[in-house]
Structures
1.
Amino acid sequence: MVGARKRGVKKSKQKLCMVPGVGHVWMLTMTTRRQFFSTALGTAFATPLLSQEAKLSYKGENIHFGLVTYMWGADWDLPTLIKNCETADVLGVELRIEHAHKVEPSLNAAQRNEVRQRFEDSPVEILGMGTNCEFHSADASEVRKQIDLAKDYIKLSHDIGGSGVKVKPNNLPKEVPVAKTLEQIGKSLAEIGDYALGFGQEIRLEVHGGVSDLGHIKTVMEAAARDNVRVCWNSNDEDLKGDGIVKNFAKVQPFLGATTHIREVNEGTYPYPELARLLVEADYAGWVLLEARTKPGDRVAALAEQKKLFMELVTKARAAAA
């Protein structure tokens, strides 16, 4: 089992969820559908719904679908972002920096509280910050600058109600031995992981850029060696190279965190049915977040469609695993 449940992360915030045949119902974020049906809805509603659930494996029941505010959400201010996510029934958001929502470390205490309150007053969960902090530089002063910046975002994520901060490995300087750079990235993650622990935050290393090889990511994670430093699978083409997606996924499965990134399910050739199967078989408990690349006319409708497409893959994988 991987993801939020494995690390004992418990959410008490209620969420508005769609229950087939019943409509939107408030429930605790990390309550399983099986538990919810048998306790909150009562026997009359629970019996047919549990019958449907019985056809699916329990594995994957805590996979949720959300959004990274890259491209599709980049020009939405915070009220618009929350409203559009509610409309699309996409109830988790990772906020990318330097976007129109303007959630940055420069916010004062009152402004941070306002951001937090907006999310608490909505069914949309703020998952944390998506940063560009990176720790590969051959310049020690630059690495220190990036570590300090990451700490600013950790504090920000905590203050607005988020649960983690996404960072990047990003590159392998040619003038430095690869092993040394990977260790440096890992040790940097260990430092910010220790700092994040005091704020109840997860550090999410996005598999990105010139360090997309999953073997390298495994090495980095072993050097970091912190329970709250996790991997954010990023659905890169590199996942399919070398040992292939199944073996590459296995390299980092023990380190998977509460967020996973995908692109549009119906664009390109990435094997999303296989990814859904791997996540289900791993009993992943966390958020699969859309980091879009295309530019549809109606982004809200497109967002709802992407949720439908991916969650259908999850349901098929759960049915096959039953």
2.
Amino acid sequence: MVTNISLPPRAPLLTRKGWGAFLVALLVVCALAPVLNLLVPQGSVFHLSDYAVALLGRIMCYAICALAMDLIWGYTGILSLGHGLFFALGGYVMGMYLMRQIGRDGNYKSDLPDFMVFLDWKELPWHWALSDSFVATLILIVLVPGLVAFVFGYFAFRSRIKGVYFSIITQAMTFAAMLLFFRNETGFGGNNGFTDFKRILGIPIATQNMRMTLFVLTGLTLLGFFLLARWLVRAKFGRVLQAIRDAESRVMFSGYNPLGYKLAIWTLSAVMCGVAGALYVPQVGIINPGEMSPASSIEIAIWAAVGGRATLIGPIVGAFVVNGAKSWLTVAAPEFWLYFLGGLFIVVTLFLPNGIVGLVQKLKALKKNQATAEDKS
């Protein structure tokens, strides 16, 4: 006798409240922020300053990295301490294009970037060959961090390196890359990196309209990546990732090969960080090897932990909370910022293992249970 098994209907990508919140965020990014910055007079209390636009744009780039970290750490159980490398690689690819856009407007009036003229270089190195093409730059922003992540991840996951050992080698990888980029002969500007950008697509960067354009593009990218991540984790692919996180050996015995799944999500998360780095550079105006420091990668993990792992929205909240506090404290009390960051991470680890979003969900459940108990009584 054959029994027909009916599977439950697939849950929607977002609930009605979720879509409402998403549309509100979309309107804030595409309509409200541009109006407050470009149309509201500077003397008005409702004016959004250029500083605030740059700060929020930078934090949204960080939020993309935190979202990428959640996919591999929160949903797959892979803690990376080297994602700052992929962020910096995307930033350097964009920085190379922006340096070529300077043209002869540099200090030395040369077709070569100023740092190359200073070092007495006569021609561009081979890896700068496509840096004058915006289309090639967009492709390389995805390809370079994706390829580096794929090669590294293939050998690491194939060797079944996991846990703290994987975290250590990712940190070693980004530290080695930082030392490499510090060298002047590599053609990446040494410890000064790239700066003094002037144009993108022939349009001046240092204008209010361009800053707002980059802000909107960053916001749309963040929202787009959020929907992509939401779709992935709710699909069969995402369920396998969570199974790998909880019991990888059982997944193997069930007939799935974890290598392909881990490699795919690892490469995707690296690409997301690379795109974030590319959006970050023209808004901040500089990229140097300091972005590859192990501390930068550790901060990405802290944002995900503070906001709440395996929630998607949590790491975004964590990136805004931590970096907002950092922006305020580095001005109000710069000597206490690192103590605050360390203390925050300890508090979250000990008392809020599910982060800010987990705490909110717990409070909502507690309130709901109390209401149910009152109704019964």
3.
Amino acid sequence: MKTATPSRLLSAPLSIPLALALLTAANGSQAQEAPTFYEDALPVFMKNCVACHQPEGPDVGGISAPMSLMDYDQARIWAPLIKNALATGYMPPWGAHERHRGEFKAERYIDKDEKELLIAWVDGGALEGDPAAAADEQGLLSSIVGAGMPESGWWIGEPDLVVEFERPVHVPDEVEDWQPTIQMHYPEGAHSNPRWISKAELDPGGPWVHHIVSSHMGVGVPGRGPFTYPEGWGVLLPEDPFITVNMHYHKDTGEGTGVYDSTRAGFEFYDDGDVIDYVVETNLLPHRGWTIPAGDPDYRVDNTHEIEEDIYLLSMGPHMHYRGKAMRYELEYPDGERETLLWVPKYDFNWQFLYEYKEPKFIPAGSTMHMSWWFDNSEANRWNPDPTADVEYGPATTDEMANARIYYAPATPRGIVVGRDMPQDVLEKARAAEQLRRERADLLDLTEDDFGWLTEDSP
């Protein structure tokens, strides 16, 4: 007797009871194969998402996750948007191309098979599965949630020093874009000697904070977490009575749109006896003098920066506004060899990451950094404030910028022992940076044409 081939089985006549039985079995098999939340989706969410998407999730540069992906009911409601965010690459937010996987700290890549599993879970009906299966994941759950916001309310843990405004800053109804320079005073007696910063965190008062810039706290922008320097790297905080910060507020106008801002900053310091080999410096590397034509979907500008001494490159922070589309850093070595340091093909103003190397990168003197920015000033860009307008470099959120901030240090170790005599050049440089801001501390209403503060310290 011949065995029927699959095609013959499909074409052979079946009795109605047998056909129904086979159909029921097939549907049951598909149901068993469809991913479920507790058995399949939750472990992937915990690995890739719940550091932010958890109950009372942390604030990251003024942004908080809208739901917890540890909760089935919430995940099910958001399932269609989860699929779209994964399919378009919007989540997990990161920006750096896949080619950089493994280079930077705290990278947010999701594996292809994990992405496909979550999409299959949504397409399969976002099934719940057996809640008891989550018990098998408690070890992973604890480790991931532990990486989220500590009980202190600060990513860096309990700060050694917290500074804030003397009173909340009022941003009135009629204000759309405002950039006041403000003083943050130290608590009395809390900071009487220069100290070395190992971690710094800026805590924006709300989503209307476009950026925060300080000589010693770094830069706070949407989506960016705290600064944690490698061991032996640090920034000196002078003993001055306050820190001067530039705030940039951007919001809608109209009745009831006014807000009060209580932005804070926290610091963790090195202990006496620790050694600082590398004093962190920063350079904005801004590029001006260009005009983006109205409606242009792919406008490119380029700039270069000469490396005059051996340095270690710590991190890179691309910065554009709503028309920003992509950004690239390239390095040309003295022998002519070129290397892509960072390629961000999908820049997102709402997620302005600082890409920090796992190990600082040595760059020899005589190298040239090549920087390129791409902008979309067309109607297709849904974030574009006005596709009919030509756009130039400017301070307002509705203007544009082409900045390529870097954090670095001279390659020669300093061997500074914390708690002993401070090198005068380091102390004087730190004081000068703060004094520059202090001299502008009363300029709360910057004139339309006053772009001087952008020279060294905007993001």
